[in-house]
Structure formats: C-alpha cells, structure tokens
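INTERNAL AUDIT FORM
Audit reference: QA-55
Scope: verify that the stored structure record matches its stored sequence.
Auditor: D.O.
Record contents follow.
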Amino acid sequence: MIILAMRSDKPQAELYLYDGSKKLSEIKWQAHLKLAETLNFKIEEMLGESKLAYEDLNGLAIFKGPGSFTGLRIGMSVANALAYGLNIPVIAKGGEGWLEESIADLSSGKFDKMAVPEYGAPARTTKPRK
C-alpha cells in the first residue's frame, strides 16, 4: 500500500512516502508563508523522484493538529482534494505517533470520511455584523 503522509501545522512542512511500513522518501522544507505555493510542487517532486504517479497512491495521511490555522487548512484541503480526486482513503491523526498510527489504520482499512483539522483553540474569525 503506497501512502502519502503530510504535516503542515508549523513553518517546516513535511512529506513522507511509505510502502506499507517501509519509508520510501521524506521531504522537509521551510514552507512558512509559501505553503500554498510549494505543497503541490513538493508532492509532485517526491512522487517523481520515487518514480511514482498520483495514481499509484493507495492512501493519504495527514497530521490533524493542533497547530497553525492556515497551515492545517491548506494541508487538509490538499489531502481531501487528492483523496476525493483519486478515490482513495484519507486519515487525520494527531499526537506524537500520528504517522505510525495513520499507516497502521490505513493498512488495516480504517480511515476517515474526510480529514478534519483540530486547531487546539477556536479559530479567531471576524464576528458577523448585526
């Protein structure tokens, strides 16, 4: 099972590519304010270097938080869009063992309907005018 895993909750973004529990590739970069511009490019770069295509992916895993509102939102959007477009399962996990747990769950057929972030606090948004 080929699994793409991503973490986008902090300035240093992370991508991992696994075949079952065997790590095939890993990329970490200072995405900070450029995450939306660089994330898809880095995924394509990782797949190309591994001689794989999007169609080879069998599952997606993403760190669900808590963390940066914008970083999590961007990562979740990409993960959910890829899962939907490729018709593959997605799972979102938090905590220190998020990656191992995600791989184990995906390999055993457990996944989420949609990846949903956990911000750790209510989002600070502008209140509607009355």
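Auditor finding: record pair retrieved intact. The chain is about 35% helix and 25% strand.
Action required: none
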